[in-house]
Amino acid sequence: MKRRPGRPGKKTSPRGNLGPDDGAWDISQFRVPPAEGKVRFHDLDLPVEIMHAVFDLGFQYCTPIQAEIMFSTLAGKDAAGQAQTGTGKTAAFLISNITNLIRNPIVGEKRSGSPRVLIIVPTRELVLQVTKEAFALSKYHTIVIVSIFGGMNYQKQKRRITERPVDMIVATPGRLLDFYEHGDLRLDKVESLVIDEADRMLDIGFIPQVRRIIRGTPPKHKRQTLLFGATLTPEVTRLSSQWTNDPVIVEIEPGQVEVDTVDQIIYLVTTREKIALVYNIITRQNLSRVIIFCNRKDETRRLADVMRRYRINCAALSGDVPQKKRIAILENFRAGNIRVLIATDVAGRGLHVEGISHVINYTLPNNPENYVHRIGRTGRAGATGTSVSFACEEDSFQIPAIEKFIGHELHCAQPDKDWLTLPPPGKKI
Predict the structure, then answer these.
(1) Domains of the chain, each with CATH number or no CATH
(2) N or C: which end of the chain has fewer CB within 10 A?
(3) DSSP one-letter code for 49
(4) Is the pTM for the entire model greater than 0.70?
């Protein structure tokens, strides 16, 4: 979504939203001129509460997937979409669902533990990101949103779904299924089911759990189902045919995922030169918010240890970091208290942080799709970003596959020799 300069909006609490708009804002304050080939949010006939939230977020025009899919989903149709993170798909399915909740309120007493919207995602980080975006888009209407995932206090989450009615649940499959099978959660009133990153769920073995969850929801012709994946593989397509009813198919190619807003360069280096080069890239350019991607968790720890010896404020994020610590690290990174985040692909999946100027691929990923996912952490929402990748003797053979996947050649260069020298350890940066 194209973003204009942000405007301060009313603050929301982490537990809920503000409720109905107070009438102080009018749609006439939100002026976006028609543009050839672009769809405005004004063109979607959205409730004023959502338009106000969109205005606060600084969005003007729909992204390609939003423009292609939302006319259908707002009309209640099922959809299956090929779209990676960074395409705006989260806002697309949230706006459709929040619109339905606003326009079709439940009359009479609501039942606790019985959501109307169920969103299933593969990772805890993605639960938190989707929930945060849901709060932002529903801040001017009273909607109860609850996030459910493992690694956090079980009883606290249980109370959130059993002690009051809930409109929307965003969850990972394991913990959600646990609550459902213990009778704490009912799914027979689900009106809309969203399955995000279905291909990722296949990869990590969540599909059997997702099947059991879906069996608890109404039949597919009595609910709306939206399914997304970074790739619509044959397996994902088969799942879509089982779970959706005559869906609209939208495919956003990886090359459209804001890659054109990212300046990409590959430095040809030896393994021993990487430490000095990453140090100089960060310090000589005075970078303040950087993500460094590694392929293995032991690599993230070793690199973080070296960076700390050179007094660079950093944190390592991998799959074996406890959940509470992982959340604290991400929040400190968002707040600017951590300068450099060193992560694996597992930890980086679903990671959305504003203002990341540089992504550094300390090691090139084995999967070309992960390259696009990584560089998509920068250059978001119309902003520009920089991706720097290191190609050493061990992984330079990955370059042709990445170039084929993204559809163009990558610029490879030798770094300046003085960028390959380290100062004495312990220098204050």
Answers:
(1) 27-251 (3.40.50.300), 256-420 (3.40.50.300)
(2) C
(3) H
(4) no
